[in-house]
Amino acid sequence: MTDQQPAETVTEAALRDAVRGSRGEPGGLAGGPEPGLPAVERKFRRDRGHKKLGGVCAGLGRQCDMDPVIFRIGLAVLAITSGIGLVVYGFAWLFVPYEDEEENEARRLLSGRVDGQALTAVLFALVGCGVFLTLLNNGGALTFAAVLTLLLAGAGYWSQQRGTPDLDPVAAHAAADAPPEAKAPPIAGGPSWWRDPIVKDGTHDGASGYFWGPAGLDVGYQPSGRHPGTPRGETTPAPPPRPRGPRWIGGWVFLFALLAGGLGTGLTWNEHPLGTTLQTGLACALAVFAIGIAVSALLGRTGAGSIVLAVLTAGLLAATAALPKNITTHYARTDWIPATAADVRPQYEVGLGTGRLDLSKIRVGKGQTVKTHAEVGAGDLRVVVPKDATVRLYAEVGVGDIVLPSDKDKDLDIAPGREKKVTLEPPSGSKSGGTIDLHLEVGVGQAKVTRATS
Fold it and tell me: CA 361, CA 410: separation in Å to the nearest integer?
């Protein structure tokens, strides 16, 4: 070993020589792993140097000795089909630190040091959980996600284990009994192990050294602010901080996203339901964010704010897909008051607003049945039924409350998936009349049924 070569530990050098002697092999290729040497176990860390977003896929590629593009494509497919990709990426971004750090984003977030990376990781995890919960009833999508997850995990494990050499027990025993390897003295003026301080964990701050060594070498302790080679008594000024790159593209991306969202919403406001209108506007804004992030990835002129806004927009877009299709963009208050049973229409509908169906004036003869259906996309639906009629009621509310004449509690009890199927008998002592089949449907809001007093 020459003084220009890096120092090795005694165990590694002895183990290498023992393996060569026991197998009769020459030295391995420079930089390659020696046969018989145990593989160095590396912890999973995010890769800062090759990251595209949070460095998770780059860290997985380095850990498993695979192309990170494989993990990027796999997690993207899992994010679209089931949301699991966003969950995995978000939690890994939160709890796995970079390779040159020991503190993760979750610890920074809990200590009050909130930045764009931590917020983006949290949003990734939340949006992924939301998408996953909406697909719990979709067995096909969950099965595909589970199979793809197992394939990615299996490929990563196989790739990680394929290059691990088996440790020769004879070589390991010989390494334990091998004497220390001799080191050559340094050459004046050249790099040498004499210059390096003895530190247990192997770190080197670049400023401290020994007070002794070969003559002519200035290897004494260097005070803070003085670099090796600088005459004693003088200090080298610290280099100026590297200026941050311009970030004006983020503001322009946000402005164009607002304009695109407003334009898409305005063009579809009058002709389409509210859900379709909002989806169009948010999709246009999300497209602008995607183009801006793609351009800024090449120019390096945008911050985490654009990514956070893009994730928020994607979450809102996913939420608007769950809106009922019958919610319109115009609020209306409509009253329907049929005078006779023949005037009762089979269908009453309001997209957005309040609908009131008053059936108290009609007279339904004994043995006669009147059927009708009333629907409100978002708002209130109120129905007044005759005093002497038997009402067969079927009411369903997507998110909201159902109130019947027998309910004494006046409090609003909002819950998803409300549904009731009951028969409302006329009050005791009243004249028996006919039957009304009443079907009520509300997307978001309240359905309330009352009985006329006279």
Answer: 26
- The separation between CA 132 and the C-alpha centre of its own chain, rounded to angstroms, equals 11
CA dist., res. 161 & res. 445, Å (int): 57
402 touches 358 (CB < 8 A): no
Q: Does residue 173 contact residue 14 with C-beta atoms inside 8 Å?
A: no
Reported pTM = 0.42
Is 27 strand, coil or helix? coil
Q: What SS3 class is residue 177?
A: helix
**How far is the CA of 448 from the CAs of 24, 275, 376, 385, 434, in angstroms?**
90, 25, 12, 11, 21
**Which of 86, 50, 48, 92 lies closest to 68 in space, CA to CA?**
50
Digits of tens for pLDDT over the chain (454 positions)? Answer: 444 444 444 444 444 544 444 444 444 433 444 444 444 557 888 988 888 888 899 888 888 888 888 888 888 888 888 888 888 998 888 888 888 888 888 887 777 676 677 778 888 888 888 788 777 767 777 888 888 888 888 888 888 777 666 556 666 566 666 676 666 665 555 554 444 454 545 555 444 444 444 444 444 444 444 445 555 555 555 556 555 444 456 677 888 888 998 898 888 888 888 888 888 898 898 888 888 777 766 665 555 667 778 888 888 888 887 777 778 778 888 899 998 888 899 999 988 889 999 998 888 888 888 999 999 988 899 999 988 888 999 999 988 889 888 887 666 677 788 889 999 888 876 777 788 999 999 988 899 999 887 6
